[in-house]
Amino acid sequence: MSTTPFGASARRQALSPNERPTFGTVDPPHRKATTHVKKYRTRTAGAISALAALTLTAGCGNTESSATAEGGKGQTVSITDAQGREVEVPTNPQKVVALDWSVIRTLSDLDIDVDAVPTPQPGLPKDLASYQDATHVGTIFEPDYEAIAAMEPDLVIVGSRSGNPEIVKEFEKFAPAVLDMSVRAEKPSEVFDATEERVVQLGTIFGKKEQAEGLMDDLDTQVDAVSDQAEASDRTAMVVQVSDGTVSAYGPGSRFGTVYEDFGYRPTKAPLQEKGSHGEEISQEFFVQYNPGVLFVLDRAKTIGQDQTPALDVLNKGLIKDTDAAKDNKIVEVDGFAWYIAPSAPSSWTQMVSDVKDTL
């Protein structure tokens, strides 16, 4: 079989300051792995026990019986973060710096504004547009420690690319509370539950635990509904990323494995690696050989603010027109911010559901 490229040589693509890590390339989660059931999704024991363990403590060290009470002066909530650290966090902190867009969007979903964020790429979604002109404190890879220290924050929240022990250690030198709220999963079957854990933890800190639980319950229902329809269609799906003329495909165990695990589509028989941050570069003939019934397309360049040939234009120059996905009008360009930059926020999951609905 010939392997006609899409016009770019194979190479490692440069990381944008707002990109997130992938399954298997980050520190192991403290949650236990479980078997995920699509339609009848059950919360994992790890998630349930973590949420049950949230307790409010008064300044004198007394423990209240419930974590749902509104925070007051001197109260803290004990949070176990993505690095397995148990951190006493002030409830309803007054000055908050957040360095992960999933965290920032989750807090926005809970009607909570933060005081400083990483420098964003142009074109934030409407719900976060106000942060385009907010206080910017470095990037998620390189926080501006001096600027953040000068703010004297009550809480610093890192995650994803900024969620590593070295960055946390630097913040611990001056911040009274530092949390790593990364959503880390060794496999896609754990992602939804891990997301729920983080969302509810954030809600608990700000006295909005019930609102956070409601958001995730609603998402659970939405995801199950589209999964039922996708399963009933019996279509195969493929996820590809286009960047600088290069097309990469992702397998079921990759960062986009939720397409199969949560949204119900069957993978093609393409022999793709299970893990990897950029997928596997593919040729034009790959589409014909493995013929997806649905094609999800991520335009990475557009997502990170680069001016390149649009992803669908790149694909349309190849053999994609010969696939069932093209013939049945089942090619969808997904929302890059939701799927790639901030995939662990309720609003992002809602957008993912919407993108999947466009293929049904």
How would you describe this protein?
A hairpin with a 5-residue loop joins strand 2 (76-80) and strand 3 (86-90). The strands form three sheets. Strands 7, 8, 9, 10, 11 and 12 form a six-stranded mixed sheet that branches. Strands 1-2-3 form a three-stranded antiparallel sheet, covered by helices on one side. Strands 4-5-6 form a three-stranded parallel sheet. 48% of the residues are buried. The protein is globular. It is 32% helix and 13% strand. It starts with 44 loop residues before the first helix and ends with a helix. Helix 1 (45-52) runs parallel beside helix 5 and helix 5 (191-205) packs antiparallel against helix 6. It is α/β, with parallel strands linked by helices and 360 residues long.
Q: Helices and strands: which structural class?
A: alpha/beta
**Strand portion, in percent?**
5-15%
Could you tell me the number of beta strands? 12
pLDDT below 50 for ≥5 consecutive residues: which ranges?
7-40, 42-72
Largest sheet: 6 strands, mixed
Please, how many helices?
A: 13
Give the termini distance in whole angstroms: 32 Å
Chain-averaged pLDDT: 84
Q: Percent range for helical residues? A: 25-40%
Note the run of SSEs as H and E: HEEEEHHEHEHHEEHEEHEHHHEHH
Shape summary? globular
Would you spell out the secondary-structure blueprint of this structure?
Blueprint: H1 45-52, E1 56-57, E2 76-80, E3 86-90, E4 96-98, H2 101-109, H3 145-151, E5 155-158, H4 165-172, E6 178-180, H5 191-205, H6 209-233, E7 236-243, E8 246-250, H7 258-261, E9 266-267, E10 280-281, H8 284-290, E11 294-299, H9 300-303, H10 311-316, H11 324-327, E12 331-333, H12 336-341, H13 346-357
Parallel strand pairs: 4-5, 5-6, 7-9, 7-11, 11-12
Antiparallel strand pairs: 1-2, 2-3, 7-8, 8-10
Helix pairs in contact: 1-5, 5-6, 6-13
